[in-house]
Amino acid sequence: EGNLTDVTQAGSLHQFLQKLHWSHGPIASFWWGTQQTVSIASPELFKEHQHVFDRPALLFKMFEPLVGSKCIQFANGEDGRHRRAVYDQYFTADAVATYFDTLHRV
Questions:
Q1: Domain count, the chain
Q2: Quick one: 2 and 37 in the same domain?
Q3: What pLDDT sits at residue 86?
Q4: Over the chain (106 residues), what is each successive 10-residue block's mean pLDDT?
Q5: 30/70 same-domain check
Q6: Claim to verify: residue 4 and residue 44 sit in the same structural domain
Q7: How many CB atoms lie within 10 A of CB 26?
Q8: How far apart are alpha carbons 58 and 65 in whole angstroms?
Q9: Considering the entire predicted model, what is its pTM?
Q10: Residues 34, 77 within the same domain
Q11: Same domain as 30, residue 77
Q12: Which InterPro entries does UniProt cross-reference here (predicted)?
């Protein structure tokens, strides 16, 4: 189980990570099941690690029924990098501003 019980007791993953970083600083590790996971809560440290791209599928396994196994969360390697580059251009602040009104109406 790793720290999954702690996540539940905290109320959410977000709340667990807030407590984790408050106790242990801007970079800390925890166990997501059997996968040791590192969480970074500092823009400076995150920038230093931005070259890390691939993520273990285990981290998103619980969301698979909701988003599907073909979701970008499960994409690694060249496929993941290509999809990220294509998708990112549609989620910039300028791009979102062009279709915000439509989304708001929907």
A1: 2
A2: yes
A3: 93
A4: 94 96 96 91 89 84 90 92 92 88 90
A5: no
A6: yes
A7: 13
A8: 13
A9: 0.62
A10: no
A11: no
A12: CYP450_20A1-like, Cyt_P450, Cyt_P450_sf
Same domain, 3 and 45: yes
DSSP 8-state code for residue 2: B
Place of tokens 């809560």: 41
52 Ramachandran zone, left/alpha/beta (phi>0; psi -120 to 50): beta
Q: Answer yes or no: do 70 and 100 share one domain.
A: yes
Domain coverage including residue 80: 53-106
Determine the Cα–Cα distance for residues 12 and 15; give it in Å rounded to an integer. Answer: 5
Single out the residue of 78, 86, 84, 62 nearest to residue 7, CA to CA. Answer: 62
Q: How far is CA 85 from CA 15, 18, 51, 67, 74, in A?
A: 30, 29, 14, 20, 15
Question: Where does the chain have alpha helices with state H?
Answer: 4-10, 13-24, 43-48, 64-67, 77-88, 93-105
